[in-house]
Amino acid sequence: xxxxxxxxxxxxxxxxxxxxxxxxxxxxxxxxxxxxxxxxxxxxxxxxxxxxxxxxxxxxxxxxxxxxxxxxxxxxxxxxxxxxxxxxxxxxxxxxxxxxxxxxxxxxxxxxxxxxxxxxxxxxxxxxxxxxxxxxxxxxxxxxxxxxxxxxxxxxxxxxxxxxxxxxxxxxxxxxxxxxxxxxxxxxxxxxxxxxxxxxxxxxxxxxxxxxxxxxxxxxxxxxxxxxxxxxxxxxxxxxxxxxxxxxxxxxxxxxxxxxxxxxxxxxxxxxxxxxxxxxx
Length: 281
Fold this sequence. Notes:
By secondary structure, this protein is an alpha+beta fold. It has five helices and 17 strands. Strand 13 (198-203) and strand 14 form a beta hairpin. The longest helix is centred in the N-terminal third of the chain and has 11 residues, at 41-51. The radius of gyration is 18 Å and the shape is globular. 46% of the residues are buried.
């Protein structure tokens, strides 16, 4: 299944995509939240869809994040060798974990707001994994059993805040609008091999990133197992798995995003998104 949420920000309704058409599932009566995933929501929703006539949604409707705000949005840094090299970072012997504020989550085509005093706002196309059931101290052998599905993520980053102002990376990662998700959430069965997906990103029509998840340093089994050693993963939690080369930080000289720029991105099987940059007001 492909799940969507649509409508005004903060008032999104639930839906699905079937044969490239959008249908409303709000009469199902549940948001796509932690409780939904924790109570076999995907199976129950599938049965509901089979048993009910669903109203079709207009094509031009605004899409929100396909998932209700999760308990955690966990990110993995420097998980592609080419990206580590372009940023002059030594590839880590263990995954780099940081957190992204869930208040940063927006829809796939919503504007990205350049933060106040920002001059180094950057882009990062990423594959994000959605956890389907409570996970703690999971083995690598069992890790994929905990996956509900996948979603496209732009891990927008403010490099000065992240790197030059001391402390952790989090303050350059969690600004409002810095986590566009979607256009849809795809259940695990929709993606034959998450370790062989092309992911790409363009700025103003120019291709900046063109990579493949086959180039992960740490694969999904390892990331899920490793992360679960340090925190309990709850249903609906998101792990964003890193970005390939081609970010502004790696350019010589860097050319960061400015108001009016347009970012487009996509991943095989997970759709495409488009975001316009706007100045903070």
